[in-house]
From TrEMBL:
This is IFRD2 regulator. It holds the Pfam family IFRD. The keyword Coiled coil applies. Belongs to the IFRD family. Residues 4-31 form a coiled coil. The keyword Lipoprotein does not apply. Residues 5-139 form the Interferon-related developmental regulator N-terminal domain.
């Protein structure tokens, strides 16, 4: 009984922190957004959070889109990495495809932008490749 309650409390704590990180992606400060992206990268790479992300995937995708559009260098690179992890968490179903299709044009845009930093371009290339492999229904 108490173990289940403790586990439930830990899960709620993790979800609260994730919500906070997602809110911080919209911060005016680039440093705050980068810190939030790093925290999300760590969380998404260390634990399966598909249940939590399922209902928040579009909100997170929208925030990542803003980071890719308005951010520079490191922020764009982190956003690409978090997007890759989001696609991995969503899997090959319609949810993963929806996230991928909404951000694919932006990934291509950053990838082909010669003024973008090499790390941002590399991260977007990786995100494009991984998300395409995992979530794209269209074979082309």
């Amino acid at each position: 009984g108490s173990e289940a309650a403790s586990e439930q409390g830990q899960e709620e704590e993790v979800e609260d922190r994730l919500k906070e990180y997602m809110d911080n992606l919209l911060d005016k400060s680039a440093k705050a957004r980068q810190a939030a992206l790093q925290s999300l990268r760590l969380a998404l790479s260390s634990k399966s959070l598909s249940e939590f992300l399922l209902e928040r995937r579009l909100t997170l995708a929208d925030s990542l889109e803003k980071c890719l559009k308005k951010g520079k260098g490191e922020e764009q690179a982190l956003a690409g990495t978090v997007l890759t992890l989001l696609c991995l968490q969503m899997g090959s179903g319609p949810e993963g495809e929806e996230v991928f299709c909404s951000l694919k044009p932006l990934l291509v845009s950053v990838l082909t932008d010669s003024t973008a930093s090499p790390s941002a371009r590399q991260s977007c290339a990786t995100a494009l490749g991984m998300c395409c492999y995992i979530a794209a229904a269209d074979l082309e």
